[in-house]
Amino acid sequence: MNDSDPNTFTQKDLMQHLFHATQHSVTREEMTAQFSQFEGRNQERFKLIGKRFDDLQREIKEKSIKEASIYIRYSLSIIFLI
């Protein structure tokens, strides 16, 4: 039977706690480097998204012009048939 008090924090417990805490901590420099890396990735993604939107706008404009010209030709052909 173990007679130790659960509220007692031994030196071994303290050392284990400190060991785990240091494993999960990062330095300011590591955090800054990670933030810069993520910022760079986000900028690349935004550029790709912007390019895709530009491509989509161009496609929509081209299709609109094509459909408008088809509509005009159709309308003119009906007018000339009348």
How would you describe what is shown here?
- The protein is 82% helix and 0% strand.
- The chain has 82 residues and is mostly helical.
- The model has no long low-confidence stretch (mean pLDDT 85).
SS element count, helices:
2
Instruction: Report the helical percentage.
Output: over 70%
The number of E-state strands comes to 0
Quote the distance from N terminus to C terminus.
Answer: 107 Å
List the helices and strands and how they pair.
Layout: H1 11-23, H2 28-81
Defining key terms:
82 residues; 2 helices; rod-shaped; mainly alpha; single chain
Q: Outline of this structure?
A:
With 82 residues, the protein is mainly α. It is 82% helix and 0% strand.
